Amino acid sequence: MKLTRRDILKLGGVTLIAAVGGSIFRATDQGMFSAGQGVAYEAWINWRDATNPLERIVAAGILASNPHNSQPWIFRISESMIDLFAAPERQIGVIDPFRREMYIGLGCALENMRLAAEAEGFKADIRLLPDPTTELHAASISLTESAPATSPLFEAIPQRHTNRAAYDTTRSVDESTFSGINALVTESTVRLIWMRGSSSHKRFGEVAIAAAEALVADEQQSMDSHKWWRQDWDELQENADGITLDAQGIPPFILGAAKFLPDMSRSSNDQSFVKNVRDIYIPSAGAFGILAVNNGKDNTQRLQCGQVWQRIHLWAATQGLAMQPLNQMTERADRESQLGIEPEFGNAIAELIGDKNWTGIMPFRMGHPTTAASPSPRRGLDQVLG
Ligand SMILES: Cc1cc2nc3c(=O)[nH]c(=O)nc-3n(C[C@H](O)[C@H](O)[C@H](O)COP(=O)(O)O)c2cc1C
User: Fold this and answer.
1) Same domain, yes or no, for 361 and 224?
2) Do 346 and 242 sit in the same domain of this protein?
3) Which of 57, 25, 2, 11 shows the shortest CA–CA distance to 234?
4) How far is the CA of 266 from the centre of ligand 1 (A)?
5) Does residue 13 form part of some domain?
6) CA nearest to 366, candidates 188, 211, 180, 210
7) Are 275 and 334 found together in one domain?
8) Ligand 1 nearest atom to the CA of residue 104, by list position
9) 269 touches 174 (CB < 8 A)
10) Total count of domains within the chain
11) Residue 103: which domain range?
């Protein structure tokens, strides 16, 4: 049975399901009726339930932003200490050949844990890369008791989701938002550069689109990205990681229809990714920014950049604003450097930053949402405590 979009609109939910008969099994298989549910999403609901406060702090860390939802982390708890380790087996291949994104993601987890530690009544003394013999030991958090201090950023932890939908083009980002965000960039090694002039805004968009095209044209990058695509509901529930259909910001009705279709092939996924960057992410963005550090290869600075990103994104959630990292240009710059080829995107980012003392490592867009973003799966405490 072939249904046009119009038929589908006319039929709506339950009737549609009856109309496609046997496809109901497929819809169930794809989690059509249970978006955001199941064991893979429990971490968003039970993050404050553990009896041990240190486990509750780790549970907050798990909910952080991270590259391709690879959750490249292991946490170790002792009496008054939490150690955060990188999980190199969860590196996203040549999308992140130098682990730039891995360390930014670890910094994001660290920021959530810092906020949770304060809320739990601890002063958190954070040491970045505390072990000179291994950079896999990303941070140690030493906890001493103090008065509990919850903040709006802490409360926003379960509300923050990456929003990949179109943003509202009728509403611009106001001055107080830029200054509110600028005030959150307190690390001296991190700087936020906004693309506020019309030419830099336009140029950012051009570079992002060209980078998306270059990324999918690179067979290995395309394959390494696709490894984290989770369309099959059982696979999603089992792995509790990766990028899902539900997290694409697709309008609910089209999302339902998409779940009837066979799993997207790598090439159709690549095509729709480039189309989304070109037709949705760039034209509907209210603002573009790039977080930069002095030394883009320094893991301490990458961790600090991650802390800033998480803080900004949490703050945006408190303001009802939407955010999405757009890392294709940095992923291409890293890949160029790995392959030793002409630094087309490396140069383009340097030009956008316009100051050779700073290297852009985390580009993003923001704006007013048109659709609420959905949660992404998370591995639970039992899977990340080492
Ligand atoms: C270093 C880093 C790079 C990211 N790059 C992108 C990106 O290029 N495009 C995108 O849509 N999301 C990107 N994200 C967002 C992640 O995909 C997202 O955080 C993850 O899937 C978990 O979803 P959540 O943020 O909704 O919890 C990035 C996140 C981090 C920390």
Assistant:
1) yes
2) yes
3) 25
4) 19
5) no
6) 180
7) yes
8) 1
9) no
10) 2
11) 40-159+377-384
Nearest residue to 201 (alpha-carbon basis) of 274, 310, 284, 280: 284
CA 66 to ligand 1 centroid distance, Å: 5
Single-letter code of the amino acid located at 348: A
Q: Say what the pTM is.
A: 0.93
Answer whether 379 contacts ligand 1 (Cβ < 6 A): no
> Is 277 a pocket residue for ligand 1 (Cβ < 6 Å)?
no
Q: Is 225 in the pocket of ligand 1 (CB under 6 A)?
A: no
Location of structure tokens 């509790």? 240
Both 260 and 362 in one domain: the answer is: yes
Question: Which tokens hold the place of 315?
Answer: 């703050």
CATH number of the domain that residue 289 is part of: 3.40.109.10
Together in a domain, 220 and 359: yes
Averages of pLDDT over each 10 residues, the chain, 386 residues? 37 39 53 76 97 98 98 97 98 98 99 98 98 98 96 98 98 98 98 97 98 98 97 93 94 81 90 97 98 98 98 98 98 98 98 98 98 96 97
- Nearest-atom number in ligand 1 for the CA of 65 is 19
